[in-house]
Protein backbone atom coordinates (compact mmCIF):
# COMPACT_ATOMS: atom_id res chain seq x y z
CA UNK A 1 0.00 0.00 0.00
CA UNK A 2 1.34 3.42 -0.94
CA UNK A 3 1.65 5.39 2.31
CA UNK A 4 4.33 8.03 2.76
CA UNK A 5 5.17 9.66 6.06
CA UNK A 6 6.23 13.29 5.67
CA UNK A 7 8.08 14.07 8.89
CA UNK A 8 9.04 17.53 10.13
CA UNK A 9 11.58 17.21 12.91
CA UNK A 10 11.50 20.72 14.36
CA UNK A 11 7.96 20.15 15.65
CA UNK A 12 8.13 16.33 15.68
CA UNK A 13 5.16 16.16 13.31
CA UNK A 14 4.13 13.50 10.82
CA UNK A 15 1.71 14.09 7.95
CA UNK A 16 0.76 11.27 5.59
CA UNK A 17 0.29 10.97 1.83
CA UNK A 18 -1.80 8.06 0.54
CA UNK A 19 -2.28 7.54 -3.22
CA UNK A 20 -3.85 4.97 -5.47
CA UNK A 21 -5.05 4.98 -9.07
CA UNK A 22 -4.83 8.73 -9.54
CA UNK A 23 -6.46 9.76 -6.26
CA UNK A 24 -4.69 10.94 -3.12
CA UNK A 25 -5.43 11.86 0.48
CA UNK A 26 -3.42 13.97 2.91
CA UNK A 27 -3.65 13.37 6.64
CA UNK A 28 -2.88 16.15 9.17
CA UNK A 29 -1.04 18.52 6.79
CA UNK A 30 1.22 21.33 7.96
CA UNK A 31 0.40 24.97 7.19
CA UNK A 32 2.58 25.10 4.05
CA UNK A 33 0.70 22.91 1.58
CA UNK A 34 2.72 23.23 -1.62
CA UNK A 35 4.87 20.14 -0.86
CA UNK A 36 1.72 18.01 -0.73
CA UNK A 37 0.41 19.48 -3.97
CA UNK A 38 3.78 18.86 -5.62
CA UNK A 39 3.83 15.27 -4.34
CA UNK A 40 0.42 14.53 -5.83
CA UNK A 41 1.41 16.22 -9.08
CA UNK A 42 4.40 13.88 -9.32
CA UNK A 43 1.95 10.94 -9.31
CA UNK A 44 -0.44 12.77 -11.64
CA UNK A 45 -2.98 12.36 -8.84
CA UNK A 46 -5.82 14.54 -7.60
CA UNK A 47 -6.01 15.22 -3.86
CA UNK A 48 -9.51 14.02 -3.02
CA UNK A 49 -9.59 14.31 0.79
CA UNK A 50 -7.81 16.09 3.61
CA UNK A 51 -8.31 13.95 6.71
CA UNK A 52 -7.88 15.53 10.13
CA UNK A 53 -7.45 13.23 13.11
CA UNK A 54 -8.50 16.03 15.51
CA UNK A 55 -8.24 19.77 16.12
CA UNK A 56 -4.50 20.08 16.64
CA UNK A 57 -3.00 22.11 19.48
CA UNK A 58 0.70 22.12 18.66
CA UNK A 59 0.46 23.39 15.07
CA UNK A 60 -1.91 25.09 12.66
CA UNK A 61 -3.02 22.61 10.03
CA UNK A 62 -2.99 23.35 6.31
CA UNK A 63 -6.40 21.81 5.63
CA UNK A 64 -8.11 25.07 4.65
CA UNK A 65 -5.39 26.18 2.23
CA UNK A 66 -5.24 22.68 0.77
CA UNK A 67 -8.98 22.70 0.15
CA UNK A 68 -8.81 26.18 -1.40
CA UNK A 69 -6.01 25.20 -3.77
CA UNK A 70 -7.10 21.68 -4.77
CA UNK A 71 -10.82 21.40 -4.07
CA UNK A 72 -10.16 18.51 -1.69
CA UNK A 73 -12.85 17.75 0.87
CA UNK A 74 -11.94 18.23 4.53
CA UNK A 75 -12.93 15.32 6.77
CA UNK A 76 -13.18 15.37 10.57
CA UNK A 77 -14.37 12.68 12.92
CA UNK A 78 -17.65 12.54 14.84
CA UNK A 79 -18.57 15.46 17.17
CA UNK A 80 -16.28 17.95 15.35
CA UNK A 81 -17.93 21.33 14.81
CA UNK A 82 -15.61 23.45 12.65
CA UNK A 83 -16.64 26.98 11.65
CA UNK A 84 -16.25 26.13 7.95
CA UNK A 85 -17.48 23.55 5.49
CA UNK A 86 -16.25 20.04 6.21
CA UNK A 87 -17.52 16.49 6.08
CA UNK A 88 -18.13 15.14 9.57
CA UNK A 89 -17.63 11.40 9.35
CA UNK A 90 -19.69 8.92 11.31
CA UNK A 91 -18.02 6.17 13.29
CA UNK A 92 -17.27 3.32 10.88
CA UNK A 93 -17.78 5.36 7.71
CA UNK A 94 -15.75 4.30 4.66
CA UNK A 95 -14.02 6.53 2.11
CA UNK A 96 -12.33 5.48 -1.14
CA UNK A 97 -8.98 6.59 -2.57
CA UNK A 98 -8.70 4.85 -5.92
CA UNK A 99 -9.04 1.19 -5.00
CA UNK A 100 -8.10 1.76 -1.37
CA UNK A 101 -10.61 2.13 1.46
CA UNK A 102 -10.25 4.28 4.55
CA UNK A 103 -12.41 3.60 7.59
CA UNK A 104 -13.03 6.31 10.18
CA UNK A 105 -12.85 4.90 13.72
CA UNK A 106 -13.97 7.35 16.41
CA UNK A 107 -11.43 7.17 19.26
CA UNK A 108 -12.19 9.99 21.73
CA UNK A 109 -9.81 10.62 24.59
CA UNK A 110 -7.08 12.96 23.49
CA UNK A 111 -9.95 15.15 22.28
CA UNK A 112 -13.63 14.38 21.81
CA UNK A 113 -13.46 14.33 18.01
CA UNK A 114 -10.21 12.30 17.84
CA UNK A 115 -10.47 9.76 15.05
CA UNK A 116 -8.19 6.96 13.87
CA UNK A 117 -8.20 6.07 10.18
CA UNK A 118 -7.87 2.40 9.19
CA UNK A 119 -6.13 1.91 5.83
CA UNK A 120 -7.35 -0.98 3.67
CA UNK A 121 -5.55 -1.90 0.43
CA UNK A 122 -6.93 -2.85 -2.98
CA UNK A 123 -7.15 -6.51 -1.88
CA UNK A 124 -9.28 -5.61 1.17
CA UNK A 125 -6.35 -6.32 3.48
CA UNK A 126 -6.06 -4.01 6.48
CA UNK A 127 -2.66 -2.34 6.24
CA UNK A 128 -2.32 0.16 9.07
CA UNK A 129 -3.85 2.91 11.19
CA UNK A 130 -3.21 6.64 11.03
CA UNK A 131 -3.71 7.20 14.73
CA UNK A 132 -3.27 10.94 15.18
CA UNK A 133 -2.70 11.66 18.87
CA UNK A 134 -4.70 8.66 20.06
CA UNK A 135 -1.75 6.25 19.90
CA UNK A 136 1.91 7.13 19.64
CA UNK A 137 4.92 4.85 19.53
CA UNK A 138 5.55 4.19 23.20
CA UNK A 139 2.82 6.47 24.47
CA UNK A 140 -0.72 7.79 24.00
CA UNK A 141 -2.10 11.30 23.64
CA UNK A 142 -2.33 13.48 26.72
CA UNK A 143 -5.95 14.07 27.81
CA UNK A 144 -5.47 17.45 29.49
CA UNK A 145 -5.41 19.81 26.48
CA UNK A 146 -9.09 20.08 25.60
CA UNK A 147 -10.00 21.49 29.04
CA UNK A 148 -8.06 24.63 28.16
CA UNK A 149 -10.64 25.25 25.43
CA UNK A 150 -13.76 23.60 26.94
CA UNK A 151 -13.68 23.53 30.75
CA UNK A 152 -16.12 20.60 31.08
CA UNK A 153 -13.71 18.28 29.26
CA UNK A 154 -11.63 17.44 32.31
CA UNK A 155 -8.48 15.37 31.99
CA UNK A 156 -10.03 12.60 34.08
CA UNK A 157 -13.08 12.38 31.80
CA UNK A 158 -11.00 12.28 28.64
CA UNK A 159 -8.50 9.80 30.12
CA UNK A 160 -11.35 7.39 30.82
CA UNK A 161 -12.69 7.82 27.29
CA UNK A 162 -9.21 7.13 25.93
CA UNK A 163 -8.96 3.95 28.01
CA UNK A 164 -12.10 2.60 26.32
CA UNK A 165 -11.13 3.84 22.86
CA UNK A 166 -7.84 1.98 23.05
CA UNK A 167 -9.30 -1.23 24.39
CA UNK A 168 -12.53 -1.34 22.40
CA UNK A 169 -11.42 0.22 19.10
CA UNK A 170 -7.64 -0.12 18.71
CA UNK A 171 -6.43 -3.19 20.61
CA UNK A 172 -8.86 -5.62 18.92
CA UNK A 173 -7.26 -4.79 15.55
CA UNK A 174 -4.71 -7.12 13.97
CA UNK A 175 -1.17 -7.20 15.39
CA UNK A 176 0.43 -6.81 11.95
CA UNK A 177 -1.09 -3.38 11.31
CA UNK A 178 1.42 -0.54 11.03
CA UNK A 179 0.85 2.35 13.42
CA UNK A 180 1.32 5.76 11.82
CA UNK A 181 1.16 8.40 14.61
CA UNK A 182 0.98 12.18 14.29
CA UNK A 183 4.05 12.85 16.45
CA UNK A 184 7.36 11.48 17.62
CA UNK A 185 9.84 12.21 20.41
CA UNK A 186 10.07 15.89 21.26
CA UNK A 187 6.40 16.70 20.89
CA UNK A 188 4.58 18.14 23.91
CA UNK A 189 1.44 16.17 22.97
CA UNK A 190 2.66 13.16 24.97
CA UNK A 191 5.21 12.44 27.68
CA UNK A 192 7.08 9.29 26.66
CA UNK A 193 7.16 9.08 22.87
CA UNK A 194 9.73 6.92 21.12
CA UNK A 195 12.22 8.25 18.60
CA UNK A 196 10.78 5.67 16.21
CA UNK A 197 8.01 7.09 14.05
CA UNK A 198 6.21 3.86 13.06
CA UNK A 199 5.78 0.39 14.55
CA UNK A 200 3.47 -2.62 14.38
CA UNK A 201 0.41 -2.58 16.55
CA UNK A 202 1.41 -5.96 17.93
CA UNK A 203 4.71 -4.61 19.24
CA UNK A 204 2.93 -1.65 20.78
CA UNK A 205 0.56 -4.03 22.56
CA UNK A 206 3.63 -5.71 24.07
CA UNK A 207 5.70 -2.62 24.91
CA UNK A 208 3.46 0.44 25.28
CA UNK A 209 2.62 0.97 28.96
CA UNK A 210 -0.86 2.28 28.09
CA UNK A 211 -1.83 -0.92 26.25
CA UNK A 212 -1.17 -3.41 29.05
CA UNK A 213 -4.05 -5.88 28.77
CA UNK A 214 -4.47 -6.33 32.55
CA UNK A 215 -4.56 -2.60 33.31
CA UNK A 216 -7.69 -1.37 35.06
CA UNK A 217 -9.35 1.90 34.11
CA UNK A 218 -8.23 3.58 37.33
CA UNK A 219 -4.66 2.35 36.87
CA UNK A 220 -4.65 3.69 33.33
CA UNK A 221 -5.89 7.11 34.43
CA UNK A 222 -3.32 7.32 37.22
CA UNK A 223 -0.39 6.32 35.00
CA UNK A 224 -1.51 8.56 32.14
CA UNK A 225 -1.89 11.67 34.28
CA UNK A 226 1.28 11.15 36.34
CA UNK A 227 4.18 13.25 35.11
CA UNK A 228 2.28 15.48 32.72
CA UNK A 229 3.93 18.87 32.39
CA UNK A 230 2.04 22.12 31.86
CA UNK A 231 1.16 22.36 28.16
CA UNK A 232 2.63 25.26 26.18
CA UNK A 233 0.54 28.42 26.37
CA UNK A 234 0.01 28.62 22.61
CA UNK A 235 -1.75 25.23 22.40
CA UNK A 236 -5.31 26.50 23.06
CA UNK A 237 -4.77 29.33 20.57
CA UNK A 238 -3.79 26.87 17.85
CA UNK A 239 -6.86 24.74 18.59
CA UNK A 240 -9.07 27.77 18.02
CA UNK A 241 -7.34 28.64 14.75
CA UNK A 242 -7.82 25.09 13.52
CA UNK A 243 -11.45 25.14 14.59
CA UNK A 244 -12.45 28.64 13.48
CA UNK A 245 -10.20 29.15 10.46
CA UNK A 246 -7.30 31.45 9.60
CA UNK A 247 -5.79 33.69 6.96
CA UNK A 248 -4.19 31.91 4.00
CA UNK A 249 -0.45 31.36 4.26
CA UNK A 250 0.07 33.12 0.92
CA UNK A 251 -1.38 36.32 2.38
CA UNK A 252 0.66 35.94 5.56
CA UNK A 253 3.87 35.68 3.54
CA UNK A 254 2.87 38.56 1.25
CA UNK A 255 2.25 40.78 4.26
CA UNK A 256 5.47 39.88 6.03
CA UNK A 257 7.93 39.61 3.16
CA UNK A 258 8.79 43.32 3.14
CA UNK A 259 12.52 44.12 2.95
CA UNK A 260 13.47 47.09 5.12
CA UNK A 261 16.76 48.97 5.09
CA UNK A 262 18.25 49.75 8.53
CA UNK A 263 16.62 53.18 8.77
CA UNK A 264 13.21 51.83 7.76
CA UNK A 265 13.60 48.88 10.11
CA UNK A 266 14.53 51.11 13.04
CA UNK A 267 11.65 53.50 12.39
CA UNK A 268 9.08 50.73 12.08
CA UNK A 269 10.37 49.06 15.24
CA UNK A 270 9.96 52.32 17.16
CA UNK A 271 6.48 53.24 15.90
CA UNK A 272 4.86 49.79 15.71
CA UNK A 273 5.83 48.26 19.03
CA UNK A 274 6.91 45.16 17.10
CA UNK A 275 9.10 42.50 18.68
CA UNK A 276 12.50 42.17 16.99
CA UNK A 277 13.09 38.45 16.57
CA UNK A 278 16.64 37.48 15.62
CA UNK A 279 16.79 33.93 14.26
CA UNK A 280 20.56 33.59 13.80
CA UNK A 281 22.56 31.01 15.73
CA UNK A 282 23.38 31.73 19.35
CA UNK A 283 27.09 32.44 18.90
CA UNK A 284 26.52 34.97 16.13
CA UNK A 285 23.77 36.66 18.12
CA UNK A 286 25.93 36.94 21.24
CA UNK A 287 28.66 38.77 19.32
CA UNK A 288 26.30 41.50 18.19
CA UNK A 289 22.59 42.20 17.87
CA UNK A 290 20.04 45.00 17.64
CA UNK A 291 19.21 46.31 21.13
CA UNK A 292 16.02 44.85 22.65
CA UNK A 293 15.84 41.97 20.17
CA UNK A 294 15.43 38.40 21.36
CA UNK A 295 17.11 35.35 19.91
CA UNK A 296 15.33 32.12 18.95
CA UNK A 297 17.52 30.31 16.46
CA UNK A 298 15.88 28.97 13.32
CA UNK A 299 18.11 25.87 13.42
CA UNK A 300 16.48 24.42 16.51
CA UNK A 301 13.02 23.86 17.95
CA UNK A 302 12.16 27.30 16.64
CA UNK A 303 8.36 27.17 16.36
CA UNK A 304 7.94 25.50 19.73
CA UNK A 305 10.05 28.09 21.55
CA UNK A 306 8.37 30.97 19.77
CA UNK A 307 5.07 29.59 21.05
CA UNK A 308 6.45 29.17 24.56
CA UNK A 309 8.21 32.52 24.92
CA UNK A 310 6.08 35.00 22.92
CA UNK A 311 2.81 35.08 24.82
CA UNK A 312 0.75 37.10 22.33
CA UNK A 313 0.06 35.07 19.19
CA UNK A 314 -0.89 38.32 17.43
CA UNK A 315 2.36 40.08 18.36
CA UNK A 316 3.77 42.14 15.48
CA UNK A 317 7.20 40.73 14.59
CA UNK A 318 10.18 42.19 12.75
CA UNK A 319 12.67 39.55 11.60
CA UNK A 320 16.46 39.51 11.57
CA UNK A 321 17.57 36.41 9.68
CA UNK A 322 20.43 35.06 7.67
CA UNK A 323 19.90 36.50 4.17
CA UNK A 324 17.71 34.21 2.11
CA UNK A 325 15.95 32.57 5.06
CA UNK A 326 13.27 35.19 5.61
CA UNK A 327 10.40 33.21 4.07
CA UNK A 328 11.46 30.05 5.85
CA UNK A 329 11.20 31.89 9.17
CA UNK A 330 7.75 33.24 8.30
CA UNK A 331 6.50 29.78 7.34
CA UNK A 332 7.80 28.27 10.56
CA UNK A 333 6.21 31.07 12.59
CA UNK A 334 2.91 30.45 10.83
CA UNK A 335 3.03 26.75 11.71
CA UNK A 336 2.16 27.74 15.27
CA UNK A 337 -0.13 30.65 14.38
CA UNK A 338 2.25 33.61 14.54
CA UNK A 339 1.02 35.32 11.39
CA UNK A 340 1.86 38.95 12.12
CA UNK A 341 5.34 39.38 10.68
CA UNK A 342 5.44 42.92 9.30
CA UNK A 343 8.89 43.01 7.67
CA UNK A 344 12.51 41.94 7.83
CA UNK A 345 15.96 43.56 7.87
CA UNK A 346 17.23 43.48 4.29
CA UNK A 347 20.78 42.17 4.15
CA UNK A 348 20.52 40.76 7.66
CA UNK A 349 22.47 41.96 10.67
CA UNK A 350 25.49 42.84 8.51
CA UNK A 351 23.52 45.71 6.96
CA UNK A 352 22.77 47.04 10.44
CA UNK A 353 26.48 47.02 11.28
CA UNK A 354 27.40 48.73 8.02
CA UNK A 355 24.86 51.45 8.78
CA UNK A 356 26.74 51.99 12.08
CA UNK A 357 23.61 51.55 14.14
CA UNK A 358 23.73 50.83 17.87
CA UNK A 359 24.74 47.25 18.70
CA UNK A 360 24.48 45.17 21.88
CA UNK A 361 26.32 41.98 22.80
CA UNK A 362 26.28 39.21 25.41
CA UNK A 363 29.13 37.45 27.18
CA UNK A 364 29.51 33.72 26.54
CA UNK A 365 32.06 31.57 28.32
CA UNK A 366 33.23 27.98 27.92
CA UNK A 367 32.87 25.27 30.52
CA UNK A 368 36.58 25.53 31.34
CA UNK A 369 36.28 29.29 31.80
CA UNK A 370 33.36 28.71 34.16
CA UNK A 371 35.47 26.26 36.17
CA UNK A 372 38.26 28.83 36.46
CA UNK A 373 35.82 31.57 37.49
CA UNK A 374 34.27 29.45 40.23
CA UNK A 375 37.71 28.98 41.77
CA UNK A 376 37.94 32.73 42.35
CA UNK A 377 34.37 33.69 43.27
CA UNK A 378 30.95 32.25 44.08
CA UNK A 379 28.68 32.93 41.10
CA UNK A 380 25.01 31.94 41.39
CA UNK A 381 24.23 29.28 38.76
CA UNK A 382 20.91 29.04 36.92
CA UNK A 383 19.97 25.97 34.88
CA UNK A 384 17.22 26.68 32.30
CA UNK A 385 16.71 23.08 31.17
CA UNK A 386 13.51 21.13 31.81
CA UNK A 387 12.97 19.92 35.36
CA UNK A 388 13.44 16.30 34.27
CA UNK A 389 16.85 17.13 32.79
CA UNK A 390 17.81 19.04 35.90
CA UNK A 391 16.67 16.26 38.22
CA UNK A 392 18.75 13.76 36.27
CA UNK A 393 21.99 15.67 36.88
CA UNK A 394 23.06 19.28 37.34
CA UNK A 395 25.83 21.42 38.75
CA UNK A 396 25.97 21.54 42.53
CA UNK A 397 24.23 24.61 43.98
CA UNK A 398 22.56 25.52 40.69
CA UNK A 399 18.93 26.60 40.67
CA UNK A 400 16.47 25.30 38.08
CA UNK A 401 14.31 27.84 36.25
CA UNK A 402 13.04 26.04 33.13
CA UNK A 403 13.08 28.31 30.10
CA UNK A 404 9.31 28.19 29.68
CA UNK A 405 8.97 29.61 33.22
CA UNK A 406 11.53 32.37 32.75
CA UNK A 407 9.09 35.23 32.13
CA UNK A 408 7.21 34.38 35.32
CA UNK A 409 10.37 34.13 37.44
CA UNK A 410 12.43 37.12 36.35
CA UNK A 411 12.61 38.30 39.96
CA UNK A 412 14.60 35.17 40.82
CA UNK A 413 17.70 36.50 39.07
CA UNK A 414 19.96 38.78 41.16
CA UNK A 415 20.32 42.36 40.00
CA UNK A 416 23.32 43.28 42.15
CA UNK A 417 25.56 40.24 41.63
CA UNK A 418 27.00 38.50 38.58
CA UNK A 419 25.50 35.11 37.77
CA UNK A 420 25.79 32.33 35.17
CA UNK A 421 23.10 30.60 33.11
CA UNK A 422 23.34 27.35 31.18
CA UNK A 423 21.16 24.80 29.37
CA UNK A 424 22.12 21.53 27.65
CA UNK A 425 23.98 22.91 24.64
CA UNK A 426 23.62 26.69 24.52
CA UNK A 427 20.47 27.10 22.41
CA UNK A 428 17.93 27.61 25.18
CA UNK A 429 20.27 29.58 27.42
CA UNK A 430 20.77 32.16 24.66
CA UNK A 431 17.01 32.55 24.36
CA UNK A 432 16.99 33.16 28.11
CA UNK A 433 19.99 35.50 27.89
CA UNK A 434 18.39 37.62 25.20
CA UNK A 435 15.19 37.98 27.23
CA UNK A 436 17.10 38.87 30.39
CA UNK A 437 19.05 41.47 28.43
CA UNK A 438 15.85 42.86 26.94
CA UNK A 439 14.46 43.19 30.47
CA UNK A 440 17.43 45.26 31.57
CA UNK A 441 19.82 42.70 33.09
CA UNK A 442 23.42 42.50 31.90
CA UNK A 443 25.21 41.13 34.97
CA UNK A 444 25.42 37.55 33.75
CA UNK A 445 27.33 35.13 31.55
CA UNK A 446 26.05 32.28 29.41
CA UNK A 447 27.88 28.96 28.97
CA UNK A 448 28.19 28.49 25.22
CA UNK A 449 28.33 24.69 25.19
CA UNK A 450 25.94 24.23 28.08
CA UNK A 451 25.88 21.36 30.52
CA UNK A 452 27.02 18.89 27.86
CA UNK A 453 30.31 20.75 27.52
CA UNK A 454 30.65 21.34 31.27
CA UNK A 455 30.29 17.61 31.98
CA UNK A 456 32.91 16.68 29.35
CA UNK A 457 35.58 19.31 29.99
CA UNK A 458 35.44 20.14 33.71
CA UNK A 459 35.58 18.56 37.13
CA UNK A 460 32.89 20.80 38.57
CA UNK A 461 30.82 19.01 41.23
CA UNK A 462 27.48 17.59 40.10
CA UNK A 463 24.45 16.14 41.80
CA UNK A 464 21.09 14.61 40.95
CA UNK A 465 19.39 16.10 44.00
CA UNK A 466 16.94 18.89 43.37
CA UNK A 467 17.80 22.24 44.93
CA UNK A 468 15.32 23.28 47.64
CA UNK A 469 12.45 25.35 46.27
CA UNK A 470 13.22 27.97 48.90
CA UNK A 471 16.17 29.04 46.75
CA UNK A 472 13.70 30.33 44.17
From TrEMBL:
CDD domains: POD-like_MBL-fold (cd07724), RHOD (cd00158). The keyword Hydrolase applies. GO terms for biological process: glutathione metabolic process; hydrogen sulfide metabolic process. It comes from the Bacteria. InterPro entries: Metallo-B-lactamas, Mito_Persulfide_Diox, POD-like_MBL-fold, Rhodanese-like_dom, Rhodanese-like_dom_sf, RibonucZ/Hydroxyglut_hydro. One of its GO terms (molecular function) is metal ion binding. It holds the Pfam family Lactamase_B. Residues 270-361, 375-463 form the Rhodanese domain. Keywords: Hydrolase, Metal-binding. PANTHER family: PERSULFIDE DIOXYGENASE ETHE1 (PTHR43084), PERSULFIDE DIOXYGENASE ETHE1, MITOCHONDRIAL (PTHR43084:SF1). This is Glyoxylase-like metal-dependent hydrolase (Beta-lactamase superfamily II). It comes from Flavobacterium aquaticum.
Amino acid sequence: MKVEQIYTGCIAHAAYYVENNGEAAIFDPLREVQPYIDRAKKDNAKIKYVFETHFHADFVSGHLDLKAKTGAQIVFGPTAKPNYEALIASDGQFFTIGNYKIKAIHTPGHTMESTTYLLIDENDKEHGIISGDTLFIGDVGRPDLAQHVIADLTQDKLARLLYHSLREKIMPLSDDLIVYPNHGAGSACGKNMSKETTDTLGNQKRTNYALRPNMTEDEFVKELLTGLTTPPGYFPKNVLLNLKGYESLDKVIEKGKKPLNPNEFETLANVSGALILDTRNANDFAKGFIPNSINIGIDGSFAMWVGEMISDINQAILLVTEPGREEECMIRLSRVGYDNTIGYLEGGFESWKQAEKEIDSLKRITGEQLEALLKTADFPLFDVRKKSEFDSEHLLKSVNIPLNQLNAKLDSFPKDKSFVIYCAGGYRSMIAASILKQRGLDNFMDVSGGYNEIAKTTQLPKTNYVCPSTLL
